[in-house]
Amino acid sequence: MGARVIDGRALAEELKLRVISEVEELAAGGVRPGLATVFVGEDYAARAYERRVRKLAGELGCRYTCERLPEEAEEADVLAVVGKLNADPRVSGILVLRPLPERVSEPAVYRMLDPLKDIEAVHPVNAGLLALGRPRYVPSTPAACFYLLDRYLKLSGRDPEEYYRSSTVVVVGRSNNVGKPAVSLGFARGATVISCDVNTYRAGRLREQTVRADVLIVAAGVAGLIDESYVREGVIAVDVGINPVADPEGGGRTILVGDLDFQSVARKAEALTPVPGGVGPITDVWLLKNTAAAARWSSSRFPGRRWLPVAAPAISGGYEEQ
Ligand SMILES: NC(=O)C1=CN([C@@H]2O[C@H](COP(=O)(O)OP(=O)(O)OC[C@H]3O[C@@H](n4cnc5c(N)ncnc54)[C@H](OP(=O)(O)O)[C@@H]3O)[C@@H](O)[C@H]2O)C=CC1
Ligand SMILES: Nc1nc(=O)c2c([nH]1)NC[C@@H]1CN(c3ccc(C(=O)N[C@@H](CCC(=O)O)C(=O)O)cc3)C=[N+]21
Known about the structure:
This protein is an alpha/beta fold.
């Protein structure tokens, strides 16, 4: 049987409808969510992402601003921009695009974020809440991975809760933005979680870990890193990588490919996600969903605003119950 290709665009459309109704509800209460991005330099994947969230914010009727800084920007320039956005009441949520230039310290920039506007949960307080399983915001990329997995598991007739508890989730990549929070979300579901990074690879021991995966989440940023020799028969593989490469069809164009060697992994997988059209489109929508949540929580017009998560949180953001 051929592998199922999980359609991230269709799932993103479904999620978008829910975010639209949240934004409409806010609008009826006189609140308009505002997203601000901070984009330093010229990274290709960051540019692709910035364009997409700009467009989506427009479609959803959210405010949007992108603070552009040159590659030569100093840390103080970035901190000043974050300070300005913190103070701007029109801005509900802030996304600092990665990568930042080396001279700009990521932790310093993240510490500067107003925690209530930190929709990617990179401020130490929000990252800590997430690691403790009590997230204020679930960051969009790992949230997108599990949203897609949860939906796929349901659509294929399984109970996700039961499935994770008896499954091994292997995460390749350990960044603070993607890999580590994905590990936290795996823990929160009661899965057995294995985390690998470049050290595992250099030690020649990546394959022995990835073949154990029932669910494999790959976020290394290395085009085609994982082929069929890295996976077990029947794996569910989620490709986070967004890697610009020269179009093999020629024409001097650049295309985006993932970290999976798609055709190869498809020979053994039960299901897998493509690039483009997999995790990416859901990430975009999730970012705006968090922006809407930030707008709600910071508005005095909505009763029951929550500065901190009070109930057992929906670690996947609350949409898995459908
Ligand atoms: N689809 C989407 O929605 C999104 C896609 N992305 C994409 O996902 C990818 C990862 O992003 P991000 O986490 O921010 O990237 P980072 O570069 O910050 O982190 C990459 C991680 O992968 C590890 N790694 C690198 N090479 C290997 C290897 N050969 N084997 C195993 N592990 C390896 C690194 O290890 P070490 O730390 O030890 O170097 C690091 O932990 C990128 O392609 C990015 O563009 C990112 C966000 C959203
Ligand atoms: N702080 C931070 N958080 C990020 O999440 C982050 C970042 N920095 N820096 C850059 C990377 C890259 N990234 C993408 C997300 C979705 C698509 C996406 O939706 N792509 C479409 C295709 C795009 C196209 O084909 O042009 C898809 O996969 O179908 C792309 C790129 C988020 N990133």
